[in-house]
Design brief:
The chain has three domains: about 230 residues, Aldehyde Dehydrogenase, Chain A, domain 1 (3-Layer(aba) Sandwich); about 190 residues, 3-Layer(aba) Sandwich (Aldehyde Dehydrogenase, Chain A, domain 2); about 25 residues, no CATH class. The protein has a seven-stranded mixed beta sheet with strand order 12-15-16-11-10-18-19, with helices on both faces. A six-stranded mixed beta sheet has the order 7-6-5-8-9-21, sandwiched between helices. A three-stranded antiparallel beta sheet has the order 3-4-22. Helices cover about 40% and strands about 20% of the residues. The chain is an alpha/beta fold. The radius of gyration is 25 Å and the shape is globular. The N terminus is likely disordered. The protein is built from 16 helices and 22 strands. The structure holds NADPH dihydro-nicotinamide-adenine-dinucleotide phosphate (NDP). NADPH dihydro-nicotinamide-adenine-dinucleotide phosphate (NDP) binds next to helix 7 and helix 8.
Length: about 500
């Protein structure tokens, strides 16, 4: 584990000569702590230790691992307030939001630990008619060491979607948190040590993107990356050099579709939360809203009213905190400017919503679909509300994006909600809620297109960190023996007859 070098430092130089960097509170730019930048030696050493620990972890078996994961979960829960305080300090999000993040992360850890055996234990599969003399089974072995690279926006919940499932599947994990949230990663590794002292099955290495790149080329058996699409491409290129498999959880541009029969008050409440919750810095947050024409005006005026008093701020009573990543402010502003320059209207806020690292809510309407406010991930508290004729047009516009992470649909009829969900090209759809999937650990999560590939969470999330091992056991000689160099003419005659009968 990378050593934390001190709780307060006077230097604000992010990369000082002593090979350390500082973490900041984005609300006021004060330095929280300094951490070392893991170099090649440090990364390789962590991966080497993880490899040794992985053998111990593997031989514990499902039930032994479940016990340790239960202790790990308890250690996190017993230190939840302290963990939330670190999350809050490093991201600037209000304390309650940070605590909810801890709670969600624990739900996933719990599910992964409890379900690993059921999902991954060896299971029999039918051998089929022509192989009836064999017994066939599929098992899921740990891959070895998984490198987890995480973002800063949900610095515990998001990486836990990989860490918890990779651990439960029997792997050791080396975690590289974002340089904006190293403290969360260091605290997580400390809590692991309470659960399994002396067994570095989970370690954290701190550093910047270069440290992440070193992890990708360290010989780990898989990389679980969560972050932007642009970085995912770099990560994939590095992984390609060593044929290291990758699961990529990237950005999104999630649409919300509001049908004429929707409960507008509920839709507005979820829209407000999905658009500005966590300052809009949510991969599956609501960035585009397509509302059916008959209810458009009513929806817009209700949403405007709902967000009028919402404010970014540095106190726990603020609706949400600052932009955690300083340069994100310019991206959000750029999208708003681009929309306005192309004829869009700001019905709430606008360019005057920007106050240093804080951005108050912005609602844009009549935004051309080729504006960056529609085509690129904004990752801020600015939302587009565009009018559509009906749900067919809404689906068409929703699917026109290069991203495909999540989507939400608001309609009275569950059947219609499900039907629309089937037509949306993305990884997860919620009907009559937003982000409702996040607390359902059994649901796999991931995207299509520029939102990435592979799945975390649920049974698929456990399998994502497993290596499939198939075994075929011959129980007795086959009546029709084809796997021989002395194949009989009679066997081929029967084979020809069977081929025609079964498949012709
Ligand atoms: P980044 O892509 O900037 O960084 C993600 C991680 O990759 C960080 O730990 C970063 O380190 C590291 N990294 C940077 N360069 C490299 C490299 N060359 N090789 C290996 N690792 C590298 O994303 P953000 O942290 O800014 O997170 C925001 C993004 O994450 C948004 O696009 C958001 O949508 C997405 N996201 C996706 C989620 C999902 O589940 N689909 C969930 C949450 C967020 P460092 O920070 O130290 O530079």
């Amino acid at each position: 584990m990378t050593e934390q070098l001190g709780s307060q430092s006077t230097s604000i130089d992010p990369h000082a000569d002593d090979n350390t960097f500082a973490s900041f509170d984005p609300r006021d730019s004060t330095v929280i702590a300094r951490y070392s930048v893991a170099d090649r030696t440090a990364v390789d050493s962590a991966v080497g230790d993880a490899r040794t620990a992985a053998r111990w972890w593997d031989q514990l078996g499902f039930s032994g691992r479940q016990k340790v994961l239960r202790d790990f979960r308890a250690a996190i829960a017993n230190n939840a307030e302290a963990m939330a305080a670190i999350i809050s300090a490093e991201t600037g999000k209000p304390a309650d939001d940070a605590l909810l993040e801890v709670m969600l992360a624990l739900e996933h850890l719990d599910w992964a630990a409890r379900n690993a055996q059921k999902v991954l234990r060896r299971r029999r599969v039918g051998a089929g008619l022509i192989s009836a003399n064999q017994s066939a089974s599929v098992g899921y072995r740990p891959m070895g060491v998984v490198g987890v690279i995480g973002p800063w926006n949900y610095p515990l919940y998001t990486p836990m979607g990989s860490i918890g499932y990779a651990l439960a599947a029997g792997n050791a994990v080396v975690f590289k948190p974002s340089e904006l949230s190293p403290g969360v990663g260091v605290e997580l590794a400390r809590l692991w040590n309470i659960a399994a002292p002396g067994h570095p099955v989970l370690q954290t290495i701190t550093g910047d993107g270069q440290t992440g790149a070193l992890l990708c080329s360290s010989g780990v058996n898989k990389i679980a990356f969560t972050g932007s699409t642009a970085t995912a491409k770099r990560v994939m290129a590095t992984c390609a050099e060593t044929l290291t498999p990758l699961v990529a959880e990237c950005g999104g541009k999630d649409p919300m579709l509001v049908n004429t029969d929707a409960n507008l008050d509920a839709a507005v409440s979820f829209a407000a939360f999905g658009a500005v919750g966590n300052g809009g810095q949510t991969c599956a947050g609501v960035e585009r809203i397509y509302v059916a024409a008959p209810v458009y005006d009513a929806f817009l005026s209700k949403l405007t009213a709902a967000l009028t008093d919402a404010r970014a701020g540095d106190s726990d009573s603020a609706t949400y905190g600052p932009m955690t990543l300083g340069k994100q402010t310019a991206i959000v502003r750029g999208h708003v400017e681009d929309a306005l320059n192309r004829g869009a209207k700001a019905v709430l806020g606008g360019l005057d919503s920007f106050r240093g690292p804080f951005i108050d809510p912005i609602i844009l309407t009549e935004v051309p679909e080729n504006s960056t406010a529609i085509t690129e991930e904004t990752f801020g508290p600015s939302v587009v509300v565009n009018k559509v004729a009906d749900m067919d047009e809404a689906i068409e516009r929703a699917n026109a994006s290069k991203y495909g992470l999540g989507a939400s649909v608001f309609t009275k009829s569950s059947a219609q909600g499900r039907a629309i969900a089937e037509r949306l090209e993305c990884g997860v759809v919620t009907v009559n809620s937003v982000l409702g999937f996040a607390s359902i650990a059994a649901l796999p999560f991931g995207g299509v297109g520029d939102s990435g590939f592979g799945r975390i969470h649920g049974a698929d999330g456990l399998r994502e960190f497993s290596s499939v091992k198939s075994v075929a056991v011959q129980k007795f000689s086959a009546p029709l023996d084809l796997l021989t160099i002395e194949r009989k003419a009679r066997a081929m005659k029967i084979s020809r007859w069977m081929l025609a009968k079964r498949h012709g």
